[in-house]
Specification:
The chain has three domains: 278 residues, Rossmann fold; 97 residues, Up-down Bundle (Four Helix Bundle (Hemerythrin (Met), subunit A)); 51 residues, no CATH class. Strand 14 and strand 15 form a beta hairpin. Helix content is 46%, strand content 15%. It is α/β, with parallel strands linked by helices. The protein is elongated and about 90 Å long. Helix 10 packs parallel to helix 12. The chain has a four-stranded parallel β-sheet with strand order 4-3-9-10, sandwiched between helices. A four-stranded antiparallel β-sheet has the order 5-6-7-8. A three-stranded mixed β-sheet has the order 12-11-13, covered by helices on one side. The structure holds one RNA strand.
Length: 465
RNA sequence: GGCGUCGUGGCCAAGUGGUAAGGCAAGGGUCUGCAAAACCCUGAUUCACGGGUUCAAAUCCCGUCGACGCCUCCA
């Protein structure tokens, strides 16, 4: 039985879908105006693992991830660069798409964009105005009226009277209540805009997700996700809009990932402490990024430091060790060892599911997999042949695959590989003649090339890294 | 100030009532010409601190201290 922590109820609840075996999941994507950073990667990876696990559990998942391609920051950036805002955002969408692919994130079912949802957004706002949940102000903006929404604040646990928003009203705004938020913003001169019943303008930030949700998944969905910095005001406002519009409960489960932290602080563009996905992937593998995320609870802050990255890299190497083949000269294992391995496989399978069923406890699932690594390696050390390892390795690959790990070996060019093989041949000749100094020289040379070698009784093996 | 999450060995981290998973790092050992890898062994009498409930608490309750997030754009 899968249980999920629901931000809305602050409880871990049994997961029940609206329709049998179908999951409708909407995850807030990014605002595309700059390079995405590893914090964005964390969020994408968290929901990728959730999606993979749901599919592993037999659900069909419709996974929608939106792009915010119309927004103040995009407009500012574009005007700085003298570029069309939608051209700019489209370029970053292309880059982010590639980065997600590099991170082995499964493609979503669809990727709606604000700029392509305009008629529905306007229709949505009109509906809210008709229901008197929203009002057009004198300045051409349209605001959502918070006071008419009796359960406003239920997601973030806030009460209207506790929110000190009075000081935040900017000059020029024409709100009835300080906490009212914009559904439609009147265009400033020269700004990109769309025609609407309230004049030229563009949508506010929150309405887009309500509208795209409705367009892609319907009035009610199973899972709505995003970073926990979106709980208020973004998701709170989404609930307010959608439920006012449809009159039905919106999302059954609200799932929020914790923030990635650099030196004890949240990584964010406004703080300027950014490590971009691009930078990360130029130094370390996608598996390492994923391992960092899998190592802890998705809801907790993620410590992103040299030390944790190094440990994650070692963890990935350790997992890979389970996939190494048995020795060609292996004699085979005794029945007791074979039975031990078989039971290790069984407990890995059940332990993995048990951990993951508990609110996607990936750290617990990983611990189970490390136990399986040990069992496989022990069997190999005790003389298991490839066919004796295979079924255990197959299960191991299946489960690491559910977490989205590739465990792929690094690759070099074929000419480099030829060079490496030549050096190893030379070294083995030196070793045969017990010329240890020469042989160690060659090993050092290979190390500098990024090659690690291992001498076994069946010969010398090597790998990049 | 308000709302929320959290504080577990050197580091990361699971466990949320039944007597502390796992990984990294460290030390010792097996193997090896030496390494590397793998394997074996060693480590929290204790879970921020102080009270309380219970036969039993890292886990529940109260208080204190501390960290982080949100309350303004944010994954």
């Amino acid at each position: 039985m899968l249980r999920i922590y629901n931000t809305l109820t602050r409880k871990t609840e049994e997961f029940q879908t609206l329709e049998p075996n179908q999951v409708k999941m909407y995850v807030c994507g990014v605002t595309v105006y700059d390079d995405a950073h590893v914090g964005h990667a964390m969020s994408a990876l968290v929901f990728d693992v959730i999606r993979r696990y749901l599919e592993h559990r037999g659900y069909t998942v419709r996974h929608v991830m939106n792009y915010t391609d119309v927004d103040d920051k995009i407009i500012n950036r574009a005007s700085q660069l003298g570029e069309d805002p939608l051209t700019l955002s489209q370029r970053y969408i292309g880059e982010y798409t590639n980065e997600l692919h590099s991170l082995n994130v499964l493609p979503a079912t669809s990727y709606p964009q604000v700029s392509k949802t305009m008629p529905l957004i306007i229709q949505f706002i009109q509906g809210l105005v008709q229901k008197e949940a929203a009002y057009a102000a004198s300045n051409g903006d349209v605001y959502f009226s918070i006071t008419g929404d009796k359960d406003y604040g239920k997601l973030s646990g806030r009460k209207l009277e506790e929110m000190q928003a009075g000081a935040r009203i900017e000059v020029g705004e024409a709100k009835d209540h300080p906490m009212d938020f914009a559904l439609w913003k009147a265009a400033k001169p020269g700004e990109i805009s769309w025609d609407s019943p309230w004049g030229k303008g563009r949508p506010g930030w929150h309405i887009e997700c309500s509208a795209m949700n409705l367009a892609e998944l319907g009035e009610q969905i199973d899972i709505h996700g995003g970073g926990n910095d979106l709980i208020f005001p973004h998701h709170e406002n989404e609930i307010a809009q959608t439920e006012s519009y449809t009159g039905k409960p919106f999302a059954r489960y609200w799932i929020h990932n914790g923030m990635l932290q650099l030196a004890g602080e949240k990584m964010s563009k406004s703080l300027g402490n950014i490590v971009s996905i691009k930078d990360f992937l130029s130094k370390r593998s996608a598996d390492v990024m994923r391992m960092l995320v899998l190592s802890g609870s998705y809801r907790a802050p993620l410590v992103f430091s040299e030390e944790t990255q190094e440990a994650a890299e070692k963890n990935v190497e350790r997992l890979k060790s389970a996939l190494r083949p048995g020795s060609p000269s292996a004699s085979g294992v005794i029945p007791e060892t074979a039975a031990y391995l078989a039971s290790a496989v069984d407990s890995a399978r059940s332990g993995f599911t048990e951990a993951m069923d508990n609110d996607f406890n990936t750290a617990g699932g990983l611990a189970v997999l490390f136990e399986l690594v040990k069992a496989i390696n022990t069997a190999r050390d005790n003389g298991a042949r490839n066919e004796q390892l295979k079924s255990a390795q197959d299960v191991f690959k299946e489960l690491t695959g559910v977490l989205g790990l590739t465990l792929a070996e690094k690759k070099g060019s074929s000419e480099k590989e030829a060079q490496v093989n030549a050096l190893i041949a030379e070294r083995n000749e030196a070793r045969r003649q017990k010329q240890w100094t020469r042989s160690d020289e060659i090993r050092d040379q290979l190390k500098e090339m990024g090659v690690t070698i291992e001498d076994t009784k069946d010969g010398t093996t090597w790998r990049w890294g």
